[in-house]
Amino acid sequence: MQDSIGVEARDSNVSPSKDLPFTLQDIKSAIPPDCFEPSLWRSIAYFCLDIGIIAGLYGIAHQINAWWFWPIFWVAQGTMFWALFVVGHDCGHRSFAKQRWVNDLFGHLSHTPILVPFHGWRISHRTHHANTGNLQTDESWYPPTESEYRSMPQEVRFVRYYLTLFAYPIYLFMRSPGRKGSHFLPSSPLFRPSEKWDVITSTVLWSLMVVGLAGLTYSYGFLFLLKYYLGGYIVFVVWLDLVTLLHHTVPSIPWYPDKHWYFLKGALSTIDHDYGFINPIHHNIGTHVAHHIFLGMPHYHLLTATAAIKPILGEYYRKSEDPIWKSLWIALRNCHFVPDQGEQVYYQADRPS
Fold first, then answer.
1. All residues at 6 or more sequence positions from 133 whose CB lies less than 8 Å from its CB, including other chains
2. In sequence order, which residues have a C-beta less than 8 Å from that of residue 276 and are 6 or more positions away?
3. Cα separations (Å) of 224 from 215, 217, 344?
4. Which of 54, 118, 184, 353 has the fewest beta carbons under 10 Å from its own?
5. Could you tell me if residue 313 is inside a domain?
6. Which residues have a Cβ under 8 Å from the Cβ of 121 and sit 6 or more positions away?
7. Comparing C-alpha atoms, which of 296, 267, 319, 281 is closest to residue 86?
8. pLDDT tens digit string along 67-85?
9. Residue of 328, 325, 330, 323 lying closest to 349 (CA atoms)
10. Looking at the 3D structure of the chain, how many domains does it have?
11. How far apart are the first and last CA of the chain?
């Protein structure tokens, strides 16, 4: 499978072994072959587990229905929404099952209830993985250059640097600064003409979900929507923005201009994080280095793959030793822009002179 070894990346004239003491094949050879094979029933079991917990939490919330319990419910349910997103994330990488239609079916079942347009997100996420670490063509949480940062409109800067953990819904409609397009419109530059009906399908399903939520609000009031859906959805958005930000926003991780970039070097421009007891709940998505090298690998094999490739990667494997709150603080305080010039550049902070 091409997707399983990351060959989905753009073509490059640079040798994949240049600047690195190993090749993509060296890394792949270190991993047990069964790590690249999805198990349909195991994937469905994770989906059913998440759906079961979400349903159970709704039942508990309905029974207790006390003001002191709702914030607890929102945190728990939003975390499970995030776990469900990770299952859909496997579907987007075609690692949930071998059959494309099964991936699409469970991708929509996982993502539509949490207001993610599955195909629109899948395609933009594919662009991110094919261009990770590339200053010109990456899609997700890429840094502006210093000149871009200095000329950035105040409202854009406010969203990026002060509403960081709430930016995802805006990204769905407006993409990132400097990139035009919407995840809902087949005419968006994100998509190929051949992907038109995929995008339309996901947009229609997303719209039906919004209509359903509007109907519940009309029937039972906004407070009902807030208690049973919006509170958890906001927590989910925070999780999504937090995790994706921390995977790529670190002062010590390099970024590359297009002419100095190639897939493997860019794929290594990410870092693993330890979320403590949350790790198994959100399906070990913090094991991100292996995922970026082998994007078609099911999430339940990432820990095994990471243990296998660490001796090969050596110093090129990165894992944060800081608690999550500290990693977030470092990212927000020290990662504002990268220099305008350089073959390999790093985040810098905008310090008052």
1. 254, 255, 256, 261, 265, 266, 267, 268, 269, 270
2. none
3. 11, 7, 51
4. 353
5. yes
6. 92, 111, 172, 183, 202
7. 281
8. 999 999 999 999 999 999 9
9. 330
10. 1
11. 52
Position 162 in a domain: yes
255 φ/ψ angles, rounded to the nearest 5 degrees: -125, 155
User: Tens digits of per-residue pLDDT, 139-164?
Assistant: 988 999 999 999 999 988 898 899 99
Provide the token pair at 101: 């239609």
Asked if residue 236 belongs to a domain, the reply is yes
Q: What is the pLDDT of residues 99-149, one digit of tens each?
A: 999 999 999 999 999 999 999 999 999 999 999 999 999 998 899 999 999
Q: Which pLDDT score is estimated for 351?
A: 75
**What would the pLDDT profile of 209-265 be if each residue is shown by its tens digit?**
999 999 999 999 999 999 999 999 999 999 999 999 999 999 999 999 999 999 999
Mean pLDDT estimate for the chain: 92
Write the burial class of residue 37 (CB in 10 Å: 0-12 exposed, 13-18 middle, 19+ buried): middle
Q: Which amino acid is at 233?
A: Y
| Residue burial 71-104, b: 16+ Cβ < 10 Å; e: rest | eebbebbbbbbbbbbbbbbbbbbbbbbeeeebbb
Question: Is there a contact between 109 and 302 (Cβ–Cβ < 8 Å)?
Answer: no
Distance, in Å, from the CA atom of 194 to the CA atom of 174, rounded to the nearest integer, reads 22
Neighbours of 8 (CB within 10 A): 16
Provide the domain limits for residue 98: 3-334
Residue type (1 letter), 157: R
The reply to whether the predicted model has a pTM over 0.85 is yes
In a domain, 343, yes or no: no
Distance between CA 84 and CA 186 in Å, rounded?
25
- Structure-token pair, residue 323: 């608690």
